[in-house]
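Hey everyone, long-time lurker, first post.

I ran two proteins through the pipeline my lab uses and got sequence/structure pairs for each. Pasting them in order. The first:
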Amino acid sequence: MVRIAIVTYDPRPGTSQDRDFPVLVRELVAAGADATAVHWDDPDIDWGAFDLALVRSTWDYTWRAEEFAGWLERCEKVTRVANPVGVLRWNMDKRYLGELAAAGVPTVPTTYLAPGDAPVLPDDREYVVKPTSGAGARYAARYTPEDREAAVLHLARMHAEGFTAMVQPYVGSIDVTGERALQFFGGRLLHASRKGAVLAPGSTYDDEKVAHPDLEVWYPTPAELAVAERALAAVPDNPGLLYARVDLVLGDDGEPRVMELELIEPNLFLDLHPDSVPVVVQAVLRAAASR
């Protein structure tokens, strides 16, 4: 019997819950595994007792990046971690978008502003400011050129906390056709979803946001699938990927572009795609057995 740690976090009251979790635990146990929900920062856990540490919903890691990176380093010394630790560390900083662009992957154009950099912001279109280490639209906001003063204050707040900021043009198609989330598992497309716009005009960076509004089943076009596969092919240690989510938007030219790669703790949206559950379970069991 393989032992699997399904790795999550200890959420504060009222924060997001992992809706995939009960399904994964139940179905892995039904398939003969010893599957257990484990908090990544629990000091009493013997990680070496598990065949696989499956990172699923460590949703506080962006607040505690150094601690999380230290845990990854310790954990990989005693058991298999999925995704591979090198991939997880690479994906923790969204400056990877620059690497994807350099590799020829169509991405949303991105400028990076580190602490101490001048606040260079667009003056001819809407844009988004967010941290390079963030999740769930935390510290993200949408601005017009007339909102420059608020955007500068936003940058100052992030820089004061040590974050590097990223500035992207707001992709207007999101308001009409939404974002596409292509989910891969076990090396192949698992399913896809579409969600509505997360950032409403006039909302501030510290407003609470719904991470996946108006979620629905989506069937990706050949062009969307091709861009997603190009992005994953450019990931370091790509053959070791167990799971991945590629978030795409349509650029001004109508062609798909990568908004983000989710390789650490993406929602699987299993309640929307129940037929994907057996595929996920078998892929996880194979990963645990191959330690």
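...and the second, right after it:
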Amino acid sequence: MTLLAPAPTTRLAAITLTEAEPGFWVANADGAFAGTVDHHGDHFYVRDCFSQYLGDYSDLTAATARLRADATARDAA
């Protein structure tokens, strides 16, 4: 007989954005610094908690989703 461990569950990180200054948001994921979003022109530039560039997006919702995906992946590791 083989025992199988249950599949791990992945919980999406809860991201909270605070606008520190106009066009610059600081992200918090479950109480920890999660990164930043910087708005310039038509772009929202995303950096993770280590200031590594994650990409640029056309709206704040997409940028927040990218930070959420990054924080969720870090939690799962």
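Reply from user beta_strand_b:
Welcome! Quick read of the second one: Residues 3 and 9 are 18 Å apart (CA to CA). The first strand starts at residue 15 and ends at 21.
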